[in-house]
């Protein structure tokens, strides 16, 4: 059997796939087969490296694997396989003789395949080295990171013969994988936005194990990796890790969208080598960039610090802070927040780029939002995207904008401004896009915030010092002017100084009198307001300075403030109102806390000066009053210096002692002519100098016996053991006191006798009243039982006689009968008036009801409380009081109606007799008593005898009320 000639191009094939394609074409012609496949072992598995003809779908690789394993030709149906070295020829519909003839070339085919594979390995390693060398030459030692990333993507795509590549560096790394930042591409039609996400599994393979991920659509399209690459839609892709010094940097991605594209093991090694070289270049560029940025940042911070330190005016400093912050960090807007005195609220003091409505309406709360959290924690707080960061808004207005999706910014950072001791505000930067700053940039913002804090604090201290100097000058001038004079012109000048110091357009100072009304008013740029407007301002006063709205301010004012002037003038207490200070301005902005604080200081200075002057005047008045008291006192008053020399003596002392010792002023108190009691005087003197209670003694000076009290006068505010300035001596002539005591004793005895006599009279009056009542009862009983009965019997006899008479005699008998009936009624009425039987039989209330019915004036009885019977004596007293009161009403009141009101109370009874008559005054009542009308006096005495009280209420034309309160 003749062997077919061996094709020379097989041994010269550059790659295994080229060898497979040439061998398939040669074998298909040689054996006249329908189709031929060439299989070769690549990467440990049998793969198709060449195809020719038709019918290849009949093969699934099983027969080829079997032939390679057995090392001999095998056939099955239309398929036949011829193994050679590391490959297999598979025929479809081949001539068996041709297959047998071709089997003689198996050793040559084995040598040719091994040669091609060896050349491919050698050529692959050189390819890697050449590609890496080309990348190094392309970079040329560049330290420009974007240039390095772009060159890496381009070199990888060209070296592999693929169409596209990109390089992305990680911006976020976590447990859920990683996210790249900006992506540098080659061969893509459109730019990438939003970065590339790397899942946890892929991230573990790339970074953890340092593997290259190979994606083939035919194999991996249904995998999670295929789903992640669906948007890129590659036919084949290689993903290599970028890392340096043990830290993950990013990924190198290379792909091809050409149908049938494949990636070999050499391609994998090539991509990995490129990634390693690129990682070194990227790391160097990043280090250089970091160092460059540090130098630039240091220079920028130095320039910023110099610029911020160039001004000590707060407004200028704040403007420079905002200008530098937006320029350094590329922010779209910035604002300086100021912490308010309440310690809970932040307002925007200065801003750049922020809408006016935002500046006016935002009032952030400490602890809420980015700015509030930065102030509360005293550290940087950043939100890369505020719409998704769930940090919320610091104010109600911000929360509304976020809820409505109208918040204009996404990236926000808050930086606290303050010293080590406290935070006074915050610097907040805003970006319309997500936060573009990395960790180094954020650290730079903290350094800048520290510089800004120092500059702002210096400006605040400087302006505070200037403000204090201006305020001190104003306060000094106010105190000096009012201390020299408190006239109207001086008060007007003080009003001018105070108004200008408060940056107001108009002002006034109003002083009040003891009644609280305004007595003096000095104005600046303002006509003196009418009394009604001043009274309205007085009604707005509080405990301290307070802003006034336009409604409560003087006309044409847009905003105003008012502060009371309070002091201890004249000893009226700390809250004594001296007046008030008022200032206003046409603008509508309310006065700041600083202005209110200055207003308090000015008001305190005004009140202090006015109080001091009033105290001096009051002190002069008190001194004159005390001198007047001392001059008019009957006691002896002397003042001596610490050595005992008398410096003052009142007239009483001079009258008593001058005849004995001569002139008192200049004499020594301790040498008074009192030899028998001198030791007692000296002991009292020593006690006065050493004891807070002073010293006391009884001494004899000539014929006089004096009780002496000595007390030391020390410097105000000194302790009880402080230096003695003088000794005050008060002495009383006991001889006069003894005379006075005797007189008091005599008069006391007389008063005791009068009291005893009054008691006897009151006892007598009580007994007399009881006797009188008993006599009335007896007379009433005799009139009722005797006289009335005799008259009744006589009237009946006359009546019988009249029935027996005719004519004129009968008429005379009837007249006599009428007179007898009238006499009977008169006797009965007289008996009832003396002692009504209803009182004894039925009690007080029926008796009072009968009494009301008997009165000439229309009278009603009103009862309140739990009704009960009283003691007979008390019921009689109440009845007589009411009877006398109604009698007075009938005689003198000229009333249309009257009322008896009885109130039963716990422990007693209260009776009020009221009329609507003409009434009277106390003078009229006294005049009537002097004329002999003793009705009220009798009532008062009867009430006193019963142990009660009488109240009289009466006014001319408004009637009279007599109220009896009786126990029982």
TrEMBL record:
<dbReference type="InterPro" id="IPR011712">
    <property type="entry name" value="Sig_transdc_His_kin_sub3_dim/P"/>
</dbReference>
<feature type="domain" description="PAS">
    <location>
        <begin position="622"/>
        <end position="670"/>
    </location>
</feature>
<dbReference type="InterPro" id="IPR029016">
    <property type="entry name" value="GAF-like_dom_sf"/>
</dbReference>
<feature type="domain" description="Histidine kinase">
    <location>
        <begin position="880"/>
        <end position="968"/>
    </location>
</feature>
<dbReference type="GO" id="GO:0005524">
    <property type="term" value="F:ATP binding"/>
</dbReference>
<dbReference type="Pfam" id="PF13188">
    <property type="entry name" value="PAS_8"/>
</dbReference>
<dbReference type="Pfam" id="PF07730">
    <property type="entry name" value="HisKA_3"/>
</dbReference>
<dbReference type="InterPro" id="IPR036890">
    <property type="entry name" value="HATPase_C_sf"/>
</dbReference>
<dbReference type="InterPro" id="IPR003018">
    <property type="entry name" value="GAF"/>
</dbReference>
<dbReference type="GO" id="GO:0000155">
    <property type="term" value="F:phosphorelay sensor kinase activity"/>
</dbReference>
<dbReference type="InterPro" id="IPR050482">
    <property type="entry name" value="Sensor_HK_TwoCompSys"/>
</dbReference>
<keyword id="KW-0597">Phosphoprotein</keyword>
<protein>
    <recommendedName>
        <fullName>histidine kinase</fullName>
        <ecNumber>2.7.13.3</ecNumber>
    </recommendedName>
</protein>
<keyword id="KW-0418">Kinase</keyword>
<dbReference type="GO" id="GO:0046983">
    <property type="term" value="F:protein dimerization activity"/>
</dbReference>
<dbReference type="Pfam" id="PF02518">
    <property type="entry name" value="HATPase_c"/>
</dbReference>
<dbReference type="InterPro" id="IPR003594">
    <property type="entry name" value="HATPase_dom"/>
</dbReference>
<keyword id="KW-0808">Transferase</keyword>
<dbReference type="InterPro" id="IPR005467">
    <property type="entry name" value="His_kinase_dom"/>
</dbReference>
<dbReference type="InterPro" id="IPR035965">
    <property type="entry name" value="PAS-like_dom_sf"/>
</dbReference>
<keyword id="KW-0547">Nucleotide-binding</keyword>
<dbReference type="InterPro" id="IPR000014">
    <property type="entry name" value="PAS"/>
</dbReference>
<keyword id="KW-0067">ATP-binding</keyword>
<keyword id="KW-0902">Two-component regulatory system</keyword>
<dbReference type="Pfam" id="PF13185">
    <property type="entry name" value="GAF_2"/>
</dbReference>
<dbReference type="GO" id="GO:0016020">
    <property type="term" value="C:membrane"/>
</dbReference>
